[in-house]
Each structure stands twice: as structure tokens, then as C-alpha cells.
Amino acid sequence: MIVVEVKKKDTWLRRSENLKQYYCYLNEESGIETVSENELRSKNNNKFLSFENFENSGGLLGNDYSRLCSIKLTEKTTLGATAVMWVDDHPSLEIDPDIINDKDPGHLRIYFSMESRTNRKVHNPSGDFLIQNYFYDILMTYEMNSTIPLNYLNLNMESELYLNNEIENYKKSKKFKVAYFASNCGDHTGRDKFVAELSNYIEVHSFGKCRHNADPSILFPSCKSCNFAKECILKNFYFTLALENSYDIDYVTEKFYEPLKVGSIPIYRGAPNVAKFSPHEDSYINTNDFQNVKSLADYLHNIIEDDELHFQKTIGWRSERLKNAQFRNLTKFGFDSSICRLCFHIKENY
Q1: CATH number of 157-329
Q2: Structural domain boundaries of the chain?
Q3: How far is CA 140 from CA 33, 113, 143, 149, 194, in A?
Q4: Domain Fucosyltransferase C-terminal spans what residues (predicted)?
């Protein structure tokens, strides 16, 4: 059994906190109960999580394991840890003394962060994960060249995108044009300025703190009781602005995938290699493909008015699921498989 202890480092307060332990069992084939990702993240959860036939990363794609892994998640940290995972929400160039002065020098040190390189520069002048690698044995980040890469996909994403029973109702459900959710209004990418200009040519409903002009509780009162309230709202829109807070390689977040699942076309601005993380070239609109905001708005109006074009952008591409093996492979590198992949990596390399 491999025990991974999770700690959170608070850079601001210069302290760390023990959060939980994962008990990782490899190659066990009985007594396993599969649970969802949401259940895995919930508190006081002692169920088991299992995965079969996934691919271990090791920083690379293509190594098929076809093994069984089970995980027990506990809020207690009573067993001696094989490895310590540091969850760092506010990365800093100055390494926390708790890590340097680890009580047990035999611990593997794991660095976990889903923050982008650009945003890390607020605390880390270089923004380079390799600086952390000098102090850590294993890196778990969104970058696909990490020891254990983590993207915003999951093992169920393919079926969520391609086998949606409501797919034929996408056109009928569209009552509004463009949806926008954002709470960080001071970001350096200029997305607020972009939205302001786009609003001159097409109606944009903004539900977040930035450019707020719409109240979801009034427009969509039934969505308040939904488990996925945001997706409940997005399904009513032809388009959703998926504007990342930084433009880093591999940094494609849930902003891109949430609208796809409910038939709202993402208008994407962010990672330069977003095509690698998309299910199909017709599934989204890249703002970089247009000379200016007005030409983008003209294209959006064209999609709304052209039933055939709208069908291709929302439904047509979903019939070509088998052609995109790369996207199907990427679904194996999300959070829900991360602990199993980590444990296999530890077993085989340490």
C-alpha cells in the first residue's frame, strides 16, 4: 500500500496544514466500489475508487497498464506516509521551510498546482515549474510534460460530449446569444476590454462580477436548484465566452468544456495549443482566427441565422468521435485518474 499525505501550503501565512491521506492499493481485484469524482472530493469519504485500463503518464503518453488501482480517501492522517503532496494555491519562489525541513527525509515530495505559469509570476519571477522541481521529486500540474500531468478533462468526458440525449434539442433551447462568467476583472489579458467591444456588436449576458448585467435567479430561476447550475444556464445560449485568465501552453480550463457539454459553442481565447485539447476543430470558435472583434461578431450572427452551420458547430462534429483518438487519450489525464497514476509512478520509480 502506498500512502499519499496531502498538505496545503499557505504562502501568505507561512504555514502548512494537513488535509487528508490517500491509501493507494495496486493490483487488488475484489471489494472495490467505484465512486464519482464529486464523491471522491467530498468530506469524510471512506469509499474506494477504482480505474481499469488507463494509461500511466510518466510525462509521456501511450504506456498502457491495464491494471486495477483502488484508493481509500480519509480525513485522518494516522499512517506513515510514503509521499507528501503539497497543494500550493499561491506558488512562491521562496520554498516553504516545512518542505526543506521535512521530518522524514524518506518522504517523496510532490508538488501539486493547477495555476498557470503566467499567474505564478505574481509570486515567482520566473514562473518556471522547474524551480520547484529542485525541491520536489514529482510534479503534478496542468502541463503535459509534468511527471503526472493533470488536465481539466475526466474519464467520462467523451460520453458527456458525444452521447448527450438532449443533443437534438440544442437549437430549440437557444433563447439568448452570448453568455459570460468572470470574477477576476483586473486580469492582464484584456478580456474585459474584449467583452466590452464585442458587446457593441452582439448582446452579451454577463453573470459574474465583471461587466455584470444579468441576474441568473431572475432569468433562470429553475437552475438555482440544479447540481450544475452554470451548465443549466449555458444551455440557453448559442455561445459562451471561454476567456482564460492567461494564455499559457496546455492551460485549457473548465471554461472551454462546460459549454460544450450543453451545446453552447465556446468562443475561446487562451492557450495557443487549444486545438490539441478540443474534441473537434468545429466544436469551438477561436478568436485568433478573426482580424477584429466586428468580424467575429458577424460570424456569430451568421451561425445564429444559418441552421446548417449551427448544426455543424453544435451537433455535426459529434458524429466523428472515433476520428479523434488524441482527445480520447487526453481524457485519461484528469483529476479522477491522477492518484492512481501517481501511485503507479511511485511504485515503478522509487
Answers
A1: 3.40.50.11660
A2: 2-150+334-349, 157-329
A3: 26, 7, 8, 6, 32
A4: 172-348
